[in-house]
Amino acid sequence: MRRYLGIDPGVSGAFAVLHLLDTGDQALTVHPIPCDWIEVGGGKRRRYNLFALHKALVHTTPISLAYLELQSARPGQGVVSMFSTGFGFGVWQGLLTAIGIPYMLVAPQRWRSRVGLPAGGKKKAIKRGVCLAACRRFPGMAIPLEHSDAVMIAVAAALEHGNGGG
Amino acid sequence: MRRYLGIDPGVSGAFAVLHLLDTGDQALTVHPIPCDWIEVGGGKRRRYNLFALHKALVHTTPISLAYLELQSARPGQGVVSMFSTGFGFGVWQGLLTAIGIPYMLVAPQRWRSRVGLPAGGKKKAIKRGVCLAACRRFPGMAIPLEHSDAVMIAVAAALEHGNGGG
Fold it and tell me: Considering A4, A13, B87, B142, which has the largest number of Cβ atoms within 10 A of its Cβ?
């Protein structure tokens, strides 16, 4: 059996595991990022629950290969948003390294084009396209919009390593 | 023996381990953050070497308690700088969580006041004050400016937990 891990980092993201059995059968499991709501100033903010995330990640091992979506600083973004994006990206790399899961960083354009989707376009249209593709690929499952990136990143990882069963 | 870990995250930071032996003797080890120089665009950037950092961190265990300096988004900072700060903070929390090292987040003002230094002031003067204090505390060692935060954070961790030997 081979298992491919697709990771869409960020507090509203998810990680997905594509299990490719030796029989040719496939299975998919999707995990939302475990988060807690923390009071910050007057409002509430979602924060990673690192202990739950670590536990869930260890539970998915052994992983043949993980694809972690590349994150980077974008001009014009707010400092809080950039700090959070960097934080999530760091958390994932820290956990993957410490658990010993082999991983690669993959740019959004690259995994999307690998699974046959347009690399660019309007953000909303891209999101919807990824969700449609995920639902087509796994027709028995209800895959919400916010989990579909993780699912298709896992599919891209499997495809690029010759185990796509596309 | 007890060991207290002080962490000044960031690519130019360090981590320090204060060993408190049952005999009353003390020892200090300081590790710069392992980094590689990566070509980015036309220039070069320092990046964490996560595998070396993980290995070095595992090597310090068991740790009684780690103090990780709290990082947060600061208005007026650049997006690249904020992304990097968030990234480093995330890496450390991911590694500490996965390795199972107990840790606390500590604001700069708090650890500085715990070791008897002014909580605020001009950045350069603060840095120099911390370095002087570190050199006084460990007279046998040459502690450079960029390692002294980590050293005094480790001292603060030990002090707050009743093992300061101040």
Answer: B87
Burial class from Cβ neighbours inside 10 Å (0-12, 13-18, 19+) for residue B41 reads: exposed
- pLDDT over threshold 90, residue A121: no
Nearest to B91 by CA among B157, B33, B148, B150: B33
Rounded to the nearest angstrom, the gap between the alpha carbon of residue A42 and the centroid of all alpha carbons in its chain is 31
* CB–CB contact B75 A79 (8 Å): yes
Q: Which among B73, B93, B99 is the nearest to A83, CB-wise?
A: B73
* Residue A75 preceded by cis peptide, ω within 30: no
Contact A72/B83, CB-based, under 8 Å?
yes
- The pTM assigned to this predicted structure is 0.93
For residue B148, the surrounding DSSP H or E stretch is helix B145-160
**CB within 8 Å: B99 and A99:** no
Q: Say if the Cβ atoms of A97 and B50 lie within 8 Å.
A: yes
User: Distance (Å, rounded) from C-alpha A105 to C-alpha A102?
Assistant: 11
Instruction: Name the CATH superfamily, with its identifier, for domain B2-160.
Output: Ribonuclease H-like superfamily/Ribonuclease H (3.30.420.10)
Alpha helices per DSSP H over chain A: 50-60, 79-99, 108-114, 123-137, 145-160
ipTM: 0.91
Q: Give burial (CB, 10 Å; 0-12/13-18/19+) of B64.
A: middle
Give the pair of three-digit tokens for residue A127.
């999101």
Q: What is the pLDDT along chain B (166 residues), one digit of tens a residue?
A: 899 999 999 888 899 999 999 898 999 999 999 999 988 888 888 889 999 999 999 999 999 999 999 999 988 889 999 999 999 999 999 999 999 999 999 999 999 999 999 878 898 999 999 999 999 999 989 999 999 999 999 999 999 886 654 4
